[in-house]
C-alpha cells in the first residue's frame, strides 16, 4: 500500500477550498426578483452551512433527494453545496418540461423536499396536489416576496430558514462513492432517465474539465454559465469555479441576447458557456448593433453541434475563441473538447478551424471507440463512421430505477456505454459526430449525416435555423429534407438554398427539398426536436403532387 493520506473526494471540499483560498472572490447573480446580487465565496460558504443545518432540521438525511426548480443564481448554488455536502442528493429539475413530465420525474426520483424560484410559484401551485411525496416546499426568496396567499400547504421561506440558523457546522465525511446529485436526461430520444452522480465522479470530472486542453479555467477567469444549473450541473461549472477560485456570474432567468450582453460587459466576463441556440440570440443582438465584447475571450459551445458559421462569427468578428465540447447527461457531461495539438499548429487557419469544429479529443478519464453493426472496432481514419462507445469514472453505469436492465454493452470483455451518437475519429484522436443514430438518413443503403447538411444551411446568410431530417422516399427509402426558418425579412427560395450546396458536398447528399416554417420545435434543453419534425414532414417526399403547402 502507498503511504499517502486517504481523503474521500467530496463536493464539500470544493467549497471549503473556495472559502479558505479565494474567500474574497465574487459570485454575482441576476436575481429572479429583478436586481443584481453580489457576495463572496466566504459569504456563500457561510450561507451554505446555514442552509445545510436548516434542511437538516427539516429532516434531510443522507441519501434523501432534494429537488430544485431554479435558474442560475446564488441560492441555487448554496443548495448545490448544502444538499450534496450533507450527504443528501440534489435533484435539479428542468422547469421547461411539461408539468406532467415534472410530476413524473419528481415522483420517480422520490424527492422529499422541493426548493423553487419565485417565478415558478404558479407552476408549483398547479402541481403540488399531485406531489404527495414532497414533505416540504421551500420558496427560494425572502419574507418580503412571500405570497400573501397560496394553495401550497405549509410553504416555507428560504431566507427565514436561513435566518434561523448560525453557520457553525462541520461538513460530514463519508464514502466518496455516495450519490451527490441527480439529473434526468432531456428525453429528446425517449423517456427521461435518471443519472445519479457520485462525489467521486463529480470531483474527478471537475479536475479533468478545468485542465488547459479542456475548459482551461483559472482564478483569473470570470465565468458566466448560461447553460442552466438544472442541465447536467451547468456542465460542472459551479464545482470547477470553486476548484480554481474563478469569479462566477449567474444570469438568472434573463437569457436573451441583450441581458446576457449587458451582464458580460458589466461584470468583465472572460468565459461563457451555453448551447448554440442561446449564442444565436446573443449574436443577433450584438451584430444588429455593432457591439463588441470588451472582456470575453472564450466561449464554450456544446449540447448540439456548433455550426462552423457560429465559430467563424465569434472568432473573426469578435475575437472570441470558441471551445467546441461534446458530452451527455450520462457523462457528467464532458467527454471531448476540440482543442488543437502541436502538430496542427502548422496548418492553415481553415484547416485548423475544420479540426476545431469537430467535437474533439477525449479528456483523460474518458476512453472512446467506434464500432460497426457487428460490434467490430472501426479504424481512426477520420472516414469510417460507427456507433460511439465511451467508458470512464464519470460515465454512468446504470439509470435510476432501472429494473436490472443494464444500459452498458460488452466489447472485448469490457463494459462500454453506447452513446447513441454516430461518429468518426481521425488519426489525431479528434472525434466528429455525424449524427445521432436515430437521426441518420439512410439513403439507398448509404448513410447521410444530417449535421453536415445543417451546418451548410446555417452558413447561408438568410438562414436563422435549419434542421435536416430523414424523409421517407419511394425509391431510396429515405432522403434528406431540410426544414428551415428564414431570418426576419429574408426572401430565400428553395432553389437558392439548394444551389448553395453545390461544390460543398457530394451531389447525392444534397437535400431533396426545403420546407420553410416559422419556428422549429425546441426541447427543454435548447435542442431541436427532430422526431416532431419527422412526424410532421416524414411523408413530405412521398407524394410530390399533393405536398402540403407550408407557410
Ligand atoms: P438528451 O440525450 O436527452 O438530449 P443530453 O443533453 O445529455 O440529453 O444530450 C446529449 C446528446 O447531445 C449527445 O449524445 C449528442 O447527440 C448531443 N450533443 C451534445 N454535444 C454535442 C456537440 N458538440 N455536437 C453534436 N452533438 C452534441
From TrEMBL:
Presence of keyword Ligase = yes
Q: Note the Pfam families from the entry.
A: AMP-binding (PF00501), AMP-binding_C (PF13193)
**Signal peptide extent:** none
Using the record's annotation, list all stretches that form the AMP-binding enzyme C-terminal domain: 453-527
Give all residue intervals belonging to the AMP-dependent synthetase/ligase domain: 16-399
Instruction: Please give a single GO biological process term from the UniProt record.
Output: fatty acid metabolic process
**Annotated family:** Belongs to the ATP-dependent AMP-binding enzyme family.
Provide the protein name: Long-chain-fatty-acid--CoA ligase
